Amino acid sequence: MKKNIVLSAVFFALVGVGWLIEERSLISSEEKSIQERLYNFGREDIQQIKLPKASVVKKESGYFVESLDLPIDPISLEKLLKNLNSLYFVKEIESADTNEYFKHQSMLVEVVTTEKKIKFRIGDVSDLTGTFYIEQLQRNTNKLVVVKNKSVLNDYYKNELDADLKKYLELKDLINSTPIDLVDKRLLNSINASGLKKLKIDNRRNRWFELNFANKQTTPPPPSGISTRINQESVAKRLLGIKFKSFKKVDGGVLDDLLSTVELESEGQSIVMKLYGLFNREKGPFLVRSDRPDTVYTLGEGREIFFENVQSFWSKKLQLPRADILKMKRLKFKLGKKSGKMRDFFADDIQKTFKISSANDEVHVKDSNYFYLLFNAVFANGAFSHADIVQKLGPKELRSIVKELKDGIQLEFLDKTLLFSIKDDTLIMLDIKDRLQFIYTGKDQLRPLKEDLFFAFK
């Protein structure tokens, strides 16, 4: 009996091993059929890509859209090559009439490399499997195959079938691109961040200003007590983000309603760009470059930089000895109504909890959040990292504003005397010693500042 049980166990174990071997051989066979890649186009080898509506050619300076003689969008080229190089063979189809597989789509593609020409057409997709048909158009004979796109989809999908269908649509859209679809629409695609020297912006909304990237200064300069914050990489990124939607020849057309002029100086080039509201009475915005005066561009993304204010390149926050403050075990400060008596307080555990306590037994802290609100503006934290507007006040103007804010909350610490007031969604912080006014707008749900919100008497 025991011997029979052992033999049975051995039998079922062998059957199980045989089943596993058979299943593995079947899976590996299926996987093997989808491991064969149809194309492996090396970017450096491609001389030309002919699509149904456009052609891309290689020149000394890179790839260009042939009919427009303009650089191709590098992202579009990368996507196209990624999709073509991700097509894998599933199976071959023997058919006398291949047209039945191209009833809805028949997209002809020709890729010319340094060694050969590869021609094929992409056909219909299966809604059940996500695979689709390609006819390889060879010199002597054509070959119809089913393929699977194994590229990575940078989009949300519900399942593998949904992903495959979306990848097919992406490839279809790329193949059917028009010349203007493929063009690099960055208006300043050759900008080098390290080569930027000067940028001058003169627009209808704000006073003109200039950025000097060599000395990190602005003209006009910031008021005393305020530093500049000119990030060369960030400005270059914004300039590269200026894109056009379309372009046309000026051909004697009339540009009107000048909105902004931007003068850019970088290594090897100086460009003046003028932004207009009208072209032949058509609403824009429209842009003309000094180095391409015969072309007018319809502007798309990135137009915000044309309407910038010099204050966008200032560090609009209090200048404080932050490193010294963080080393303190306890920060002593006074707080109270401007027209009333100031009370003494402490802030402990400055780097972590910033715990507020009263220095007087007769006074107790009512709500620490209101203290935190003021100190967030003081230390430029969170929503108060930078003021929207900073103004240098004259002595007479300062006296007028202080008088107006007589019921505001005053905060005194170190050598600073600050006056705070809230009206609607705007917080005002007044640095009395340096005569600087910081204005923070768009701060919803702020209550008017009153002394009894901060502390009460025991």
Task: Summarize the structure in words.
With 458 residues, this protein is α+β, with helices and mostly antiparallel strands. It has three domains: 137 residues, no CATH class; 123 residues, no CATH class; 136 residues, no CATH class. 22% of the residues lie in helices and 37% in strands. Strands 4-3-2-1-6-7-8-9-5 form a nine-stranded antiparallel β-sheet. An eight-stranded antiparallel β-sheet has the order 12-11-10-15-16-17-18-14, with no helix packed on it. β3 and β4 form a beta hairpin.
Which range best describes the helical content: under 10%, 10-25%, 25-40%, 40-55%, 55-70% or over 70%? 10-25%
Flag low-confidence runs: 1-32
Number of domains: 3
What's the average pLDDT? 90
Q: How many alpha or pi helices? A: 9
Strand content: 35-45%
Task: Strand order, main sheet: write it out.
Answer: 4-3-2-1-6-7-8-9-5
**Number of DSSP E strands:** 29
Q: How far apart lie the N and C ends?
A: 92 Å
Overall geometry comes to: elongated
**Multimer state:** single chain
Find the structural class using helix and strand composition.
alpha+beta
Q: Taking Cα atoms only, what radius of gyration do you get, to the nearest Å?
A: 34 Å
Note the main sheet.
9 strands, antiparallel
